[in-house]
Amino acid sequence: MRTMTSALFYGSRDLRLEEVEIPAVAPGEALIRVEKALTCATDLKTYIRGGHKMIPTLPCPFGHEFAGTIHEIGEGTSGIEIGMPVVVANSAPCNDCPFCKRQQQNLCENLVFLNGAYSEYILVPEPIVSQNLYPLTGDVPFERMALMEPLACVLHGLDRTEVHPGDQIAVIGAGPIGLMWVRMLHLAGAEVTVLGRSRWKLEAAERLGAKYTLNVSEMDRPEFALMEITAGLGFDVVVEAVGVPEIWERAFAITRRGGTVHLFGGCEKGTTVPLDTHALHYDEKRVLSVFHHTPEHVAQAFDVLRKGDLDENILITQRVPLSELAEAFEQMERREALKICITP
Predict the structure, then answer these.
(1) Are 268 and 206 in the same domain?
(2) By C-alpha distance, which of 292, 290, 269, 265 is closest to 93?
(3) Distance CA 20, CA 166 (A)
(4) Based on C-alpha coordinates, what's the Rg of the chain?
(5) Residue 167 lies in a domain
(6) In this structure, are residues 261 and 239 in contact, taking their beta carbons and an 8 Å threshold?
(7) What's the domain range around 191?
């Protein structure tokens, strides 16, 4: 029996490295040797809370942001070959359910999720191979391309938000997702303000294109500074990239009349948030929330990264072996890192 080292998630704060059998490859599938995997906030929330929509059963292979090299391919798999470097998204739609037919593939009733990036090998199912696997060319770093999946989520959100050049946009949260939002908004021509609680993360936001940064941990009433930036109007768009109910409320409060509140950070299941319905109606504030990505946005993310329009060295702050995975999550929980690159 061929074995590999793989991280298995058993529940809240219970992550174990075990020797497991390397899966057999079926027709249409591909077995990938993982070269680089990245930690992410979704994995961290799952690690702390003990579950997520993408985790169907326990124990479960863990991790979903990665790039690697094709090790084996199943019968009938076309367009790829053994030894080819690739990057892979973590899901694929069925393209046949009512949501897919409405061009909402992110809400597909039969969405195939892929976990297991924190392993030496990962088996990619046929729907993902055929829709969301991209060969790499040249000397593009594996760790940069492993950003494809979260960037696709951001680009999906950006597409739905209707951003225009010159818009004044606030991003609440300077974690990896918030920082990707900053970069994409900057490239779209927006004037970006970032609210965060860490000076070094706000400095990263400035390097990615933020015009203004505010450390809210050092301010009693940050709303005053925000209103000064917008000449008292409020922001055209506010992107909440933290996933905390109290901050969802703050996002609504600093959005201008007729503006858009994008609640991008996912809160824990069962969370409720009070909203000022008078302001919602009479100020015509648009509330938006976007989940996951579509193949179209995966393709866009691949192109952004291939061209080098997002500097991975700003987002990846540490690099460790797979054996230090649990410690990596502890560092993220202490907010000592943005993304950590894992090498099996």
Answers:
(1) yes
(2) 292
(3) 53
(4) 20
(5) yes
(6) no
(7) 154-288
